[in-house]
C-alpha cells in the first residue's frame, strides 16, 4: 500500500492571516521547568543537574486557530441553527465519515471565484463516475501551490450553493479542497456582494451546512498524487471538545 501525505504543515514561519505562535522549551529548559513544577505543586525538591546532561524533555507551546493547516470543519462551524437541534461539534461526529473511497475532481485553471454544478457534472462524465454515499470528494484547484503566501488566501476558486448541494444530494458527507476555503475567497465574495446586493453569494458552501449535515476538509496538499478514482482517504479530525473544527493528518491510501 502506498501512503500519500495530503496534509499541509502547521508552520509558524509561513504567512497566515492569524499568525501561528510556536514556542519551544529546549530539553534543558524542560528540566528547569519540571524541577520548578515539582517544587511548586508537590513540594518535591529535585536538582535538574542530576539528569543526564542536565536535560529533561522538550516542550512545544502553540497558539493557532483550529483552521490552521489541514482541518475538518464541523457543522457547528457554519451557524447555530436557531430553533432547531444544535449542530454537532467536531468531537461528536461519526468516525466513519472520515475514512473511505476518495473521488478527486479536477478544478485547476478555474481562476478566482466560484465553481458551479455544471463543472462538477462535467467532471463526473470525464472520470466516468458519480460520487455517492460513503465517498469523500476532494477538489484539486491547484491552490496548494500558493500555500505559505498571501495569495493562498485570495487567489482560488470555491463552490457555489448549487454545486455544494449537488454533492450533498448525492449523499456525500465530506467535501475537501486544497484551497484555504471551500467557498471563494473573502475578497471575491464581498466584491460580488457589493456589486449585486445578492446575499446568496455570501459563503454559500459554508452556509449550506446550516441546513445540511456535512463537513468540509480544507487546506489539503499533494492532490496531484491522487488518482481520480481507486484510492481511499483517512482524515480523522482531532477530538477538540466543543470545537467547530479539528486538525487532521489527512492521508491517501493507494493499493499497489
Automatic annotation (TrEMBL):
Coiled coil: none
GO biological process per UniProt: L-tryptophan catabolic process to kynurenine
InterPro entries: KFase/CYL, KFase_sf
Gene3D superfamilies the record matches: Putative cyclase (3.50.30.50)
GO molecular function: arylformamidase activity
Name by which UniProt lists this protein: Cyclase
Amino acid at each position: 500500500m502506498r501512503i500519500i501525505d495530503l496534509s499541509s504543515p502547521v508552520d509558524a514561519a509561513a504567512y497566515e492571516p492569524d499568525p501561528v505562535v510556536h514556542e519551544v522549551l529546549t530539553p534543558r529548559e524542560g528540566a528547569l521547568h519540571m524541577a520548578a513544577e515539582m517544587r511548586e505543586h508537590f513540594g518535591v525538591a529535585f536538582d535538574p543537574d542530576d539528569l543526564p546532561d542536565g536535560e529533561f524533555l522538550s516542550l512545544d507551546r502553540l497558539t493557532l486557530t483550529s483552521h490552521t493547516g489541514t482541518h475538518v470543519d464541523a457543522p457547528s462551524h457554519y451557524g447555530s441553527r436557531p430553533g432547531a437541534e444544535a449542530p454537532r461539534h467536531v468531537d461528536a461526529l461519526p468516525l466513519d465519515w472520515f475514512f473511505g473511497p476518495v473521488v478527486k475532481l479536477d478544478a485547476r485553471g478555474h481562476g478566482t471565484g466560484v465553481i458551479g454544478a455544471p463543472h462538477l457534472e462535467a467532471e463526473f462524465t470525464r472520470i466516468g463516475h458519480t460520487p455517492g454515499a460513503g465517498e469523500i470528494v476532494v477538489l484539486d484547484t491547484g491552490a496548494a501551490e500558493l500555500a505559505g503566501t498571501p495569495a493562498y488566501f485570495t487567489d482560488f476558486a470555491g463552490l457555489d450553493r448549487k454545486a455544494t448541494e449537488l454533492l450533498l444530494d448525492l449523499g456525500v458527507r465530506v467535501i475537501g479542497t486544497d484551497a484555504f476555503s471551500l467557498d471563494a475567497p473573502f475578497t471575491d465574495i464581498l466584491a460580488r456582494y457589493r456589486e449585486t446586493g445578492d446575499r446568496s453569494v455570501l459563503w454559500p458552501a459554508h452556509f449550506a451546512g446550516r441546513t445540511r449535515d456535512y463537513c468540509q476538509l480544507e487546506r489539503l496538499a499533494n492532490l496531484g498524487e491522487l488518482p481520480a478514482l481507486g484510492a481511499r482517504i483517512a482524515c480523522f479530525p482531532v477530538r477538540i471538545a466543543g470545537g467547530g473544527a479539528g486538525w487532521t493528518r489527512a492521508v491517501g491510501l493507494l493499493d499497489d
